[in-house]
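S.,

Sequence below, as promised.
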Amino acid sequence: MKAIVIEQYGGKDVLQEKEVETPKVSDNQVLIEMHATSINPIDWKVREGYLKDMLPFEFPIILGWDAAGTVKETGANANKFRIGERVFVRPETTRFGCYAEYIVTEEDLVARIPDNISFEEAASIPLAGMTAWQSLFDAARLEKGEKVLIHAGAGGVGSLAIQIAKQKGAYVATTASSQNHSMLKELGADECIDYRTLNFEDILSDYDVVFDTMGGEIQSKSFKVLKKGGRLVSIVQPPNEEEASSYGAKAFFVWLKPNGEQLGQLAAMMKNGELKPLVGHLFDFSETGLQEAHGLSESHHAKGKIVIKIRGQN
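The prediction came back faster than expected:
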C-alpha cells in the first residue's frame, strides 16, 4: 500500500512516499480502508523529534492519528462493524499511523460516521474533538452556567471546544483574529476577543475555566481571568503548580487517551446538528500535499482542521 513515511527526524521535506506492507488484523482489530485523515500538531512535533523521549518510535514512522474510511476486514473477535461500514477513529499512538491507504485499529476505539457527515469532515473530529471533550469535561469538569475562555477558537481544537462547551450550557469567550469572529459566533461563542489588538486578561475576569491551547505567556496570563478556585487546563504544556496556587486556581495537563465511547458521543452530536466539523483546508495524499499541510499547521494560522483526502467519494 501507499504511505507517507519519515525515516529520520527533520523538516517537512523528510515526508516521503513509500510502498509498505498492508497491515494485518489481529483478533480484536478492524482493517480500515482510508478515505481521509487530518493533521494535528503532534504530527509535526513527532516529525521534528520533539517527542522522541516520550514516543521513542523506531523508523520508518507513519505519522497521523485521525482516520475516516470503510471497514475492509474484521478480526476473529471483532463483530461490532460490518464490512463496508463508514467509520472513524483516533487509533492508539503507534509508529503505524494514518498517512496510509489502510490502517488497523482496536475495534473498541472505532465509531460509525453519521450519514450526514462526509469522510473529510469525520477525519477532522477524533483527535481534536476528544481532546476538547477530555479537557473540558474529564479534567476541568465544566458545568452548565459556568464561564469558560477557550484560546485560539478558530483552530481545530478550539472550534470544536466552543461548540461542545456551548452544548453543555456554558458562557463561552474565545480569542481569535477579528476576521474569524462572525464564524465563531455562529459556532456558539458569546464573546470574541481580537488577540492582535486587545489583551484578554484586561477584559475578562471571574471565569470558572480557561482552556489553554497556546502555552507560554498566554498560559501565565490566563490565570488572571480565573475566579478563586477556577480551573485551567492545558494541552500544550503542564501548568506551573506554584503559579496556579498563587492565584488560588487548579491546573491540569491533558494528553489525549483514545476512547471509542466518547467518539460515539461526538458522532451523535454531529448527527443531531449539535457539532459542526470545520474543515478549513484540504490537501491531496502525496509527498507535496503532506509537506504543504505540515507547513500550514506549523504556521499556527490554519482555520479549522487541515484534512488530507486519501481516496474516493463519499
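Residues 128-253 form a domain with the Rossmann fold fold (CATH 3.40.50.720).

Coffee later?
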